[in-house]
Each structure stands twice: as C-alpha cells, then as structure tokens.
Automatic annotation (TrEMBL), chain A:
This is 3-oxoadipate CoA-transferase. Belongs to the 3-oxoacid CoA-transferase subunit A family. One of its GO terms (molecular function) is CoA-transferase activity. InterPro entries: 3-oxoacid_CoA-transf_A (IPR012792), CoA_trans_fam_I (IPR004165), CoA_transf_BS (IPR004163), NagB/RpiA_transferase-like (IPR037171). The keyword Transferase applies. SUPFAM superfamilies: NagB/RpiA/CoA transferase-like. It holds the Pfam family CoA_trans. PROSITE patterns: COA_TRANSF_1.
From TrEMBL, chain B:
Belongs to the 3-oxoacid CoA-transferase subunit B family. It comes from Cnuibacter physcomitrellae. Keywords: Plasmid, Transferase. GO terms for molecular function: CoA-transferase activity. SUPFAM superfamilies: NagB/RpiA/CoA transferase-like. InterPro entries: 3-oxoacid_CoA-transf_B, CoA_trans_fam_I, NagB/RpiA_transferase-like. The keyword Nucleotide-binding does not apply. It holds the Pfam family CoA_trans. This is 3-oxoadipate CoA-transferase. The lineage of its organism: Bacteria, Bacillati, Actinomycetota, Actinomycetes, Micrococcales. Transmembrane segments: none annotated.
Amino acid sequence: MIDRTVADVTEAVAGIEDGSTVLVGGFGRAGQPVELIDALIAQGARDLTIVSNNAGNGDVGLAALLALRRVRRVICSFPRQVDSWVFDELYRAGEIELELVPQGNLAERIRAAGAGIGGFFTPTGVGTDLTAGKEERVIDGRRYVLEHPIKADYGLISALRADRWGNLVYRETARNFGPIMATAATTTIVQVDEIVDLGQLDPEAVVTPGIFVDRVVAVGSRPWLEDGRFVGGVDLEGTPLPTQEAS
Amino acid sequence: MTGLSRDELAQRIASDIPDGAYVNLGIGAPTMVANYLPRDIEIILHTENGLLGMGKAPAPDLVDPDLINAGKQAVTALPGAAFFHHADSFAMMRGGHLDVCVLGAFQVSSTGDLANWSTGAPGAIPAVGGAMDLAIGAKQVFVMTDLLTKSGESKLVERCSYPLTGVGCVSRVYTERAVFNVTPEGFRVRELFDDTTHEELEHLTGLDLGEKA
C-alpha cells in the first residue's frame, strides 16, 4: 500500500540535514508553505541553501528562517520587496549569499532538474550582467546562454488537496512554483489544506501526480476558505478583516 | 507640463493594442494601461505568476490571498481565465506566445536595448524578477516612460549606461511628448503629442531622429 501522508509537520520535515539545498514554493505570500517552514525552523537544520522566487516577507515563514541565520545562500529572482527587511539587512551586512536568477530561468532550471535535462540554452538574460561568463551559442540566428538545472535535496511546497498517493491539486495563483519544484527535489514534502480519499480528486484536474511527491501533511483550511469554497473576509496576508456591524 | 498625462499616455497605449491580443503589463505605470482597454474588444491579460484572463482588483472584503498579480496585489480572474505553473507561464513569454508587453524603463537605446531592472547603484539590493524574460519574450515590447529623468536627462540614449535587461528587444517607446519606433536606423518619431516638435525632440534627446515624419 502506498501512503505518503504523515501525521504532522514535524514528521514531514524530519531528517532534513544541515547544508541541504531546499526548494521553497510560493510567489510572495501566495503558495508559501508557511507551516512547513515553521516546522523546519523548529527542526533546526542550518547552513541551508534556499531556492525560492522571493527571499521572505515580513517576519514570518522564510523571513523567520533567515532571521535565525539558518540560511547560507539564497537562489532567487526577486529578493527586494516592500516587506523584505530581514533579507535586506542580512544582505547589506554580507551575512547571506545571493545568486540572482531571472525568474523564467529560475523556473526552467528547476523544471530541467525535474525532467532530467542536463542544461538548456535560453535567450533570457543574453548580454546582461546576470549571464556574464556563461557559455553562449547562436542558434538559428538568435543568441542564447547555457543554463544548468537546479536540483535540490528537499522541496517544501503548498497545495490545496492531496490523496494518500500524493496526487495534488492547487488553488489559483498559489500554484506558481509548486508543480515544478515537486519534480526537482529528491524528497518532496507537501502541505495541503486537506487530504481526501483516493478517487476524490478528479484525475483530469490533478496537476502534480503523486510520483513526484514523498510526504504529504494536512495543515487545515485557510481562513478565507470554507470547505474549499472562497468566503473572503481577509486581507492579502490572510488576516481576518475587522467584522462589520450588521446594518 | 507639456504633453500627455500618465493617464492619457496609458489610454494612448491601450488604443494601440488589437482585439484578441495576449498582453503582459509590467509592474508600475504600465498597469495603468489596464484601466483603458476598450470594452468592446477582448484583450487577455497575462500575469507571470500563473494567470491568463486577469481582471481588476476585487472589493476589499473579497480579497483572495491566493489570487494575486506579479506586483503581489489582489486581482480577480475573469470568466475564461486559466491558471498554470511558473514554467508554463514563462514558456508563454520565452516561446513568443505573448503579443504585447508594456514595460517601464530607465533607459532605451537606439538599437532597442532596454535597461529597467537596476541602476547599478552601490548598496542597492539587486532584484530582477521576470523583467529579463518579459523583455525578450513578447512579439512586441512597448516601453512606457517619461522622456526625461527627473534631472532632465534623456531616457532615450545612443547606448545604455545602466545594466541591461535585454538586447535589441524594444519595438516602440511611448513618452508624454512623442511615440518612437525603434528601427534599423535608430529611433524614428511615430507620433507627436501636444505642441512638441521634431526639432525639440532632437534637442531634448541629443539624438538624430531622421527625417521629419
């Protein structure tokens, strides 16, 4: 029997070694696996390389992991945001390494790793500082640079629902890097709102087939959803709005 | 001020986008173009974080943290919208499937080089996001910008001095004073706004803009 579900987030992140490379899903706050990151903070692994589009928001999730000096290196496309003060301070103090990658190259390097591609030529970044020194080739009259896959030891991602085989469906733009990261990690760890019985996920709607997933943990519904249905009543951070007096 | 306001310029760009186009509007001023897309045609907005068919911002009590745009603002999904992951989203750019993208700029060179991601200032935290992919990834790249910097220097230049976002990628530049096409001969004036003259533009930019249109 295949059962990739685990009891709690502690079990989900068990065994992540110091020095690991960890893919972390999310675009800004959307799709960021905050509960798994909190569990990783409690778990204690350090000297990590984190691959993520952003480098944390506010003081929670990835930002909290960074604040504890547990991350040696960040590979990302857009670390600087209005609420990225934790990363900003570490970077200015020279206490964190940054590899800046154009977002589409970041996505494709992750996809390539998961698809067993040894490298690819991309037009993105040609002639810019971010590809300086990389091998270039002209193909059909267009300039391309060689980019290498980003393979990781672990992937932490967030989805809406899973079954015990690890099949996943996502929700809206919280999908972002989840499906490609799931393919590119040796051990893919997924948090979902709920785990449903086999057969409850429409096979036509499954985005990540369970073959790419190793551990699944249910963390409960988000405040803006009720039985998977959008009910609103929160701000962009997911904080409930002040309740209005009935008129 | 001579020339068009930001809103008028956004409206002008919107009127150049054809029915049926797939369009990405960059973060900042280009997002204003969405406010002026003609209602009687269908234009599909793409956002790099995985949505085609992006609609306007929701009412405050209907904000959905799972439904945001590239600027991480709350948006809506129109009937007919589609969600997809990041590799697909950037395949839409890199693969040349988007018809138009509208971007801001620090500088554009006469050969269509774009600089819009970094001023190269020491101490600045570098962040590129999808800028480089967008720059090379649409059939037509429109730049929306002021003609001059705050200190009065032309943003249209012979060669960019800021770090490049893309090489030879810009098709057209919309400014408050004029619209310029990037041609094999350099910038050529497509349209003048207000009482701006060809000679005045050559004076302000320091560039040879060719024969009067």
